Amino acid sequence: MAVAPPMTMQGGAAGLQHQQSVLPRSSYLGLQLASQSGVALPCVKFTSRSGSFNLRCQVSPSSTTLPHFNVDISGPGKPLQSVERTTIRLALPSKGRMAEDSLGLMKDCELSVRKLNPRQYIADISELKNVEVWFQRASDVVRKIKNGDVDMGIVGYDMLREYGEDSEDLIVVHDALQFGQCHLAIGIPNYGIFENVNSLSELAAMSLWTEDRPLRVVTGYTYLGKKFLEKHGFKHVQLSTADGALEAAPAMGTADCILDLVSSGTTLRENNLKEIDGGAVLSSQGVFVANKKALLERKEVLDVAHEMLERFEAHLTASGQFTVVANMRGDSADEVADKILNKTSYPGLQGPTVSPVYTKKGGKTEVAYYAIAICVPKSQLYHAVRQLRKAGGCGVLVSPLTYIFDEETPRYRQLLENLKA
C-alpha cells in the first residue's frame, strides 16, 4: 500500500521548459499537508539564481494523511534526491477502544504522547528522543510496519495476523499487553437448518454446501478465514465482506454465518447467533510489533524497542500486585523469615524481605519486632493478611505496586533469539 498519493513538481519559471517529476514514496516533504478530498493545494515557490520553481501538490480523493517530504531542488532537469529517514517511527491506532487503551498503557509507563492539535496525525514522546508517533488506522499500522514506513507499533493481534499475512518482516516484541482481549470466531444462527449444529465438524459435514451453493461467510477477515476453513476441510465456501454490523447478515439472508471478533458473546446472542465448538480461529489482545529489518539494521530502533519493552513488562508484571508490610515478633530475622516461608503461602518474589524494627524501651534502643515485606496479588490480599496475623504479624500496611523491574526482561532475550533466526 502506498504511503501517499503521487505528487507532481512543475517548473514554472520563464524561459524554462515544462518539466514534471513524480516524487518517490521514500521522499519526505518538510510540510505536513492537510488531506482534503480532491482539493488542489497552493504552490510553494522556490527561487534560485537560475530562476523560480513552483511545487504544486494535489491530494487524491483516497488519501487520508500525507507524510513529510524533504525535496532537494538544485535546478531544472536535476533528479529529486530522497533523504534517508533518521527518526524512529511508532504507529498507534487512531481511533476506537484500542487507541484509548494504547495511550493509557503509554501513560501508565511514563511515556507521554504529546499531540499539540487533536486533528494532527503525528506526535512525539518527551521521554524518548527522536521518536515520532503516527496515528493510523489499525490495518495501516500493520501495513506500514510491514513495508518499513514505520518501525514499530501497537495493534491487535487479530489485525497483525490478518493484514500482516504471516510476513517474516514483522516480529512480535510483546505478545500480551493485557487490553483488547477477544477472540475471532464463527457465529451461526441458532434456528432453522443450524438449530442442531453445534460444532465446526458438523457445519462442514452438512450436505447442503456444494459448488453451486457454497457456505456463505461474511467477515472482515478474509485472509484468516480462508486459511482456517481450508484447514478444517471446507471445500465449498464463499467469503464476502460487508459494511456495518455483520450480525444482521444471516437474518437478512445474505450470509449463512459470520466470522467476527467476540468478547462477551452478548452481541451474538442478541442477534440469535451462537458460537460453535472448534469455531474459534485465534485469541487476540494488544501486541507490540516491529519491523524486523529495522531492528537488525538500526541500533537506535532496537534500543527504543528495548526501553519500551522494559517499561511495558515492568508495569504489566506489577499490575494487580500489592506490597504488604507487617511487623512480626521474633528473636532473629532468620526466625521471622522461617515463619513467613513455612506458615504462609506468600513468600514474595524471591523470598520475604526482613529488617529489624528499632524501639526505645527503658532508655535503651532494642529490636523487638522485625518488618517483613512481601508481594501479593490483589485477589489474594485478604487471605494473605489473615495468614500473616495468624503467624504473629501486626500493623499490616498495603500499597499497590506500579513497576516490577526484573534483572533482565525475558521477552527481550526472546526477541534477540528471534532476530537471529
UniProtKB/TrEMBL annotation:
Its main location: plastid. One of its GO terms (cellular component) is chloroplast. Residues 137-305 form the ATP phosphoribosyltransferase catalytic domain. This is ATP phosphoribosyltransferase. Pathway: Amino-acid biosynthesis; L-histidine biosynthesis; L-histidine from 5-phospho-alpha-D-ribose 1-diphosphate: step 1/9. Keywords: Amino-acid biosynthesis, Chloroplast, Glycosyltransferase, Histidine biosynthesis, Plastid, Transferase, Transit peptide. Catalyzes the condensation of ATP and 5-phosphoribose 1-diphosphate to form N'-(5'-phosphoribosyl)-ATP (PR-ATP). Belongs to the ATP phosphoribosyltransferase family. Long subfamily. It comes from Ceratodon purpureus. Residues 318-402 form the Histidine biosynthesis HisG C-terminal domain. It is an enzyme of class 2 (transferase). It holds the Pfam family HisG. One of its GO terms (biological process) is L-histidine biosynthetic process. The keyword Chloroplast applies. Its EC number is 2.4.2.17. Gene3D superfamilies: 3.30.70.120, Periplasmic binding protein-like II. CDD domains: PBP2_HisGL3. GO terms for molecular function: ATP phosphoribosyltransferase activity; magnesium ion binding. It is found in: Plastid, Chloroplast. Its cofactor is Mg(2+). PROSITE patterns: ATP_P_PHORIBOSYLTR (PS01316). It catalyses: 1-(5-phospho-beta-D-ribosyl)-ATP + diphosphate = 5-phospho-alpha-D-ribose 1-diphosphate + ATP.
